[in-house]
Amino acid sequence: MCGIVGYVGPKSVIDILTNGLSKLEYRGYDSAGVAVNSNGKIKIYKAEGKLQNLKDLLETHRSEITNTTAGIGHIRWATHGAPTTINAHPHSCNCGKLVLVHNGIVENYKELREELKGCGCIFKTETDTEVVAHLIAHEYGKLNDLPKAVRAAAKRLKGAYALCVMHQDDPNMIVGTRKNAPLIVAMGQGENYLASDSPAIIEYTKRVIYLDDDQFAVLTPTSVLITDIDGKQVAKKEEILPWEPVAMSKMGYKHFMLKEIHEQPDVIRNVLSGKLPDITKPIVLDEVKLTKEQIKNLKRIEIIACGTSLHAALVAKYILEAFTNIPVDVEPSSEYIYRKTVTDANTLVIGISQSGETSDTITAIRQAKAVGSHVLIITNRPDSIMAREADSLIPVNAGIEVSVAATKSFNAQLIALYLFSMYVAEIKGSFDSSKIEQLKHEMMMLPQKIETVLSHEESIIKCARAFASYKNFIYIARGINYPTALEGALKLKEISYINATGYPAGELKHGPIAMLDETMPVLAILMPGSIVYEKILSNAEEAKARNARMIALTSAEDPHLEDVFEYILKVPAVDEYLSPVIASVPLQLLAYYIAEFLGKDVDQPRNLAKSVTVE
Ligand code: M6R
C-alpha cells in the first residue's frame, strides 16, 4: 500500500528519497511527503496527488535544503483521513522535532489519541499515524533516547505498521520497526537505508536485512543495529537482493503493463527452466519439501489468494482435481481468515501471491500453519514475507511486476500450478502418464503460441476501439476458462473503470440475461476440448438473441461462429487444460487498449495499490 524510504548518509537526501519514492510509485498512492534533517533542523514537505507535485514543491525549496544528514519519505494510499496534503506523511509531534512515516493501520489509535490529548498533545489530523508520532514523542520526553522511545511506543500499538522515525536532536539516525507490514534495511558504504520494498533502494545497494515482526533497526551512516522490542541485539543474516535495477525500466513500451504482457513468453520459459527438463522425465520442484509419503497421504488441498492470484487458484482447482483426484477448495484470503480454520496435517494449504506481502493472505497462511497444515507458497517475490514463512515454495520468476494490473505474474503462477499438479500426479500415479507427456510438450510450446497472439494485436486493437465507449461488459465461459472470464473482466474493470463481470455461461439465464440488450456487449471464451464448447456457443446464441453485441475469443475453426459473433479474436489451438494461459493474453490486451483509448492512467489506476498490505 503506502511506500516508505528512509536514508541516513552523506548524499543529497532529497534526491535519494524522491528517487526511491518514484520506484514505489507503481504501488498506487494519492499523496506524498518527505522530512529531512537539514542544517540541524527538521523540515517537512508534502503534496497531494502525484509524486511530481512533491518533486515540484521540493525544487522551489531546493536552495533551503542544504547540509542534509537524514530523511524519511512516504507515498500514501489513504486509509484514515482523506488524501489531502495535511493528512499526507510525514507526521510530527507538537514541537515538530520528531517525525515519522507509517505504512499500515493502527487499530487502537482512537484510545491512544484521547489519552495523548490529556497529556497536552495537539492533533492536526484524523490519521492514526499522527497518534503514533505523538506517542513516540511522549516516550522520548521521558527517555530522551529515540530507539528506546520507539520500542516503548510500539509496546502500546495494536494493528499493522511499518514505521520509519527520526528526531531533530539525533541528526544522524533513523529508526525503523515493523509488525505485519514490510520493511527492509539496506546497507551501503557510509550510508544506510530503510524501505518498504526493494525497488526503492536497489539502484544503490543489493545488501539487505529483512526485519521480522517486532524487530527494530537503528541506522546511522556507518552502523546498523537490530534489536528485539526489549532492546536486546538480534543477529541477522545479510542477504543479496535477487533483482537487477533494469527491471524497473519500460524498455521503450508506452506502459509497464504492455511491456509486462509482452514479457510473458520469456517469463514462461523462465518458470519452466530447470523444472521441466524433458517430457519423459519427472517434474523437478526442489523447493517443495513435502515427502512422497506426505503427498500420497494428502486428503485435501486448500488454496487461498486474492484478486488475480485468486483467479489463478480457481484454474488450479480444475487441474489439481483432474490430475490428482484430491479435492480442492479455493477461497479469498479475506474470507478465510474470519472463519474457523478447519484444516489439518493431511491438508495442503497453498497461498498464491504475486507480491508475497498481501496482508490477508499472510494472515490466512499463518492460521493454517498454526493448526498443522503444510503451507506451500507460489509467489513472484522470493524475498517476501510469505516466501520466508513458507514450508515449501515455488518461485515463479516473473521479474518485478510494476503495473498495478497483474498480467505476467498470472501466467507465471498458472505455469507453476501446472507443474505442481503434474508433480503430484507423477508421485501418486493418478493421471494418464502419456497425457502428462503430451501436456509437458504443449507447455514447452506455450511461449511460441503467446508470441503468435502478440504478433496479431491489430485485431484486438480494432475490437478495443469498437467497444471502448461501452459502460458495461459481460464475459462468459465455462469450466477451466470460467476463471479466465473473471480475470478478463477484472483487468477491464481495474484499468478502464468499465463495469465488467465474468459469469459461468450457464448462469446467464438464471438472472444476468435480464440486463442484455444492445448496450451490454458479451465476450464469450470458447476453447475447444470438452463438451462445454458447444454449451457456451448456445449460451452465446441466447445472448445474441437479446441484441447484445458479441465477441468470441477462440481457437476453433468453426464457420458457425461468424453467424453469432461480430468480432472473433483468434488464438492458436492448445490443449483445453492449458488454454487459460493462451486465452488470458488477448483479454489483457483488450483491457489495455480500451483503457488506452479512454486515456486512463493504465499503470497506476485510481484507488488501487500494487501490494495490499492492510486488511
Ligand atoms: O500480490 P497478490 O497477488 O497477493 O495481490 C493480490 C491482488 O491484490 C492483486 O492480484 C490485484 O487484484 C491486482 N491488482 C490484479 O490485477
How many H/I helical runs? 19
What amount of the residues lies in strands? 15-25%
Largest sheet: 8 strands, antiparallel
Averaging pLDDT over every residue, what do you get? 93
Unreliable stretches: none
Strand order of the largest sheet: 3-2-4-1-10-9-11-14
Provide the structure class.
alpha/beta
How many runs of DSSP E, i.e. beta strands?
24
Which hetero ligands occur in this complex?
Answer: 5-amino-5-deoxy-1-O-phosphono-D-mannitol
* Span of the ends, CA to CA: 11 Å
C-alpha Rg, in Å?
A: 26 Å
Q: What's the shape?
A: globular
Helix coverage percent: 25-40%
Write the layout of secondary structure elements.
Layout: E1 3-8, H1 13-24, E2 31-38, E3 41-48, H2 51-61, E4 68-76, E5 91-92, E6 98-106, H3 109-118, H4 128-143, H5 146-154, E7 159-167, E8 174-179, E9 184-187, E10 192-195, E11 207-210, E12 215-220, E13 223-227, E14 239-240, H6 256-262, H7 264-272, H8 292-296, E15 300-305, H9 307-324, E16 328-332, H10 333-336, E17 347-353, H11 359-370, E18 374-379, H12 385-389, E19 392-395, H13 408-428, H14 433-454, H15 457-467, E20 472-477, H16 482-496, E21 499-504, E22 522-526, H17 532-544, E23 550-554, H18 561-564, E24 567-570, H19 579-597
Parallel strand pairs: 15-16, 15-17, 17-18, 18-19, 20-21, 20-22, 22-23, 23-24
Antiparallel strand pairs: 1-4, 1-10, 2-3, 2-4, 5-6, 6-7, 7-8, 8-12, 9-10, 9-11, 11-14, 12-13
Helix pairs in contact: 1-2, 3-4, 4-5, 7-13, 7-14, 9-13, 9-16, 14-19, 15-19, 16-19
This protein binds 5-amino-5-deoxy-1-O-phosphono-D-mannitol.
